[in-house]
Design goal:
The chain has 13 helices and 13 strands. The chain is an alpha+beta fold. The longest helix has 36 residues. 32% of the residues are buried.
């Protein structure tokens, strides 16, 4: 890389770091801009400098409070051996709907037949319920043994308005938990919109058995406990495909298909409790964690400068740039910050310094052998790279596994750890090395500053 390219690269990096730092903490820059704009106004200048957007960090439930929701699952139609599996499916489905790449960090817990959902940043429980959304519960119901008697009884109740209507259908084993896909279709004869369903292999077998024993009988389709369609089974149906027909508009059929495809609930749930909760850790814990991070950062700077001198000083500069890039990215995504996520960030900060230490140690060995400075830098970086690559790759791999299999708070920790490692490798290898190349002539004669 030529000197001109190196200088240009460093200028671009410092410019991006300036933007990232002010995007993370814009209030200081904006105060200066407001002061200058005020002077321009006094001097009758029409030109005004723009401010950085002030976008706050998203804090987790443990730091800023949120909404606590409790749902009751109806497992009356589920066999005892399958209840645990169904509850786990409910938890995973709801978490997927409200958790994008782990950045929202909801807390979704299972307690027997209840689901506890905690969302950070919400102050209105009704808004939180709306945000979770309503996923329709799909089920097929077959005729009860006394179907005709119930129909006659319901007619009398409707005429006399005395008594209670009874559902003539009973639950069957086939529900939305076996649904593979739902798509918008149109009836070939009437051109009316309908929803085509396709079940997985297990659901296809259940559907075939269910239609086989209900030939010439009604197999009702219910959505959220409401009968949508009551088709009569003419023959045993294989292949696991069915249709939901009704007086749908195209938009209604499309919305129903989309909601079912998004994840039909394996069991119906009812919201039984909702409340706004305060932060469990709050400002005091946040301030303490930030203080610990600042003290840790200063300790790293002091160690690097005292032990590695000039390289340590440049590593400290790249570490400042690393922090600016990380914080800006947290706001840009945005990442919901909890104490677990902050811990992942601080851990990745220490690992970013590890890469510098490996390079500097190898470079010292090369300098002690009497090699030229630039050659020592190149050889030190090249020989340290396998260790840096393998160490960070293993950490990133573990982070991805934790992100894929872990719960909400673990996902936040893993996400911040992976982001920090990727940016840490960039700053340690790319920024620090270019700074050393630029300023090596100023200190090259004072080898005690390098070795």
């Amino acid at each position: 890389m030529s000197k001109r390219t190196t200088y240009l690269t460093i200028i671009i990096i410092f410019f991006l770091a300036f933007l990232a730092g002010n995007f993370s903490e814009p209030q200081y820059f904006n105060r200066g801009v407001d002061y200058i704009n005020l002077k321009f106004e006094i001097l009758n200048f029409k030109f005004k400098l723009p401010n950085f957007p002030e976008k706050p960090f998203k804090l987790g439930l443990d730091l800023q409070g949120g909404v606590h929701l409790v749902y009751q699952a109806d497992l009356s139609g589920i066999e005892e051996k399958d209840k645990g599996k169904v509850m786990d499916g409910l938890r995973d489905l709801i978490e997927r709907r409200i958790n994008l790449f782990g950045v929202r960090e909801p807390v979704v817990q299972v307690q027997r037949e209840r689901l506890i959902v905690e969302l950070s940043g919400q102050v209105d429980p009704a808004q939180a319920v709306k945000e979770i959304g309503k996923t329709p519960f799909l089920e097929f119901r077959e005729e009860k043994e006394n179907f005709q008697e119930i129909i006659e009884k319901n007619k009398k109740v409707a005429e006399t308005k005395e008594g209670v209507l009874e559902d003539p259908f009973q639950a069957s084993p086939l529900t939305g938990r076996y649904l593979k896909s739902a798509t918008l279709s149109f009836d070939q004869t009437t051109s009316k919109p309908l929803v085509s369903l396709e079940f997985n292999d297990e659901g296809a077998k259940i559907f075939e058995e269910l239609t086989g024993k209900n030939v010439e009988r009604i197999l009702a389709i219910y959505i959220d406990g409401i009968p949508i369609s009551t088709p009569v089974v003419r023959e045993k149906i294989a292949g696991g495909k069915a249709q939901i027909t009704g007086n749908f508009t195209i938009s209604e059929a499309k919305e129903l298909a989309r909601n079912l495809s998004a994840g039909a609930l394996p069991a119906p749930i009812t919201l039984i409790s909702q409340q706004t909760v305060g932060p469990t850790l709050g400002k005091i814990s946040l301030e303490r964690s930030l203080k610990a991070g600042i003290f840790g950062f200063l300790a790293i700077l002091i160690f690097m400068i005292l032990f590695y001198r000039i390289p340590g000083f440049f590593a400290s500069i790249s570490l400042l740039i690393y922090i600016a890039f990380n914080l800006a990215l947290y706001k840009f995504i945005p990442v919901t910050l909890t104490l677990a996520g902050i811990a992942g960030f601080l851990l990745s900060m220490g690992m970013a310094v590890d890469a510098n230490i490996l390079i500097f140690s190898r470079m010292r060995e090369e300098l002690r052998q009497g090699k030229d400075f630039l050659i020592s830098l190149e050889d030190g970086s090249r020989r340290a790279w396998p260790s840096i690559r393998d160490g960070n790759f293993c950490t990133i791999l573990v982070g991805l596994i934790l992100f894929g299999l872990g719960t909400s708070f673990v996902k936040g920790f893993a996400l911040n750890l992976v982001i920090g490692n990727l940016i840490g490798m960039f700053t340690a290898i790319f920024i620090t090395n270019n700074l050393l190349r630029i300023f090596q002539k100023l200190f090259q004669k004072q080898l005690w500053l390098w070795q």
